[in-house]
Amino acid sequence: MICFICNKGETAQGTTSVLLEREDISLTIHNVPVLVCQICNEAYADEGVTASLLNEAEKMANDGIKVVSHDFALADKYPQPYS
Ligand SMILES: [Zn+2]
How many domains does the chain have? Predict the structure, then answer.
């Protein structure tokens, strides 16, 4: 697809790190699969990816966990002890 930000770049499959902060929680996920603009590097996550990140943030809030940082591939293994 053509990038919405610069309207010039084609997007290609890549990965990025996503930081999601809400109130007092901080969720950092690395190697998130996204489409990345080849010109301006804007990253586009699909709905399933976005939903799983928001879902994890929700679980963190419910469990009283404040800070999480891990690989996207490990997201399905939640809950895990965080270190
Ligand atoms: Zn772009």
Answer: 1
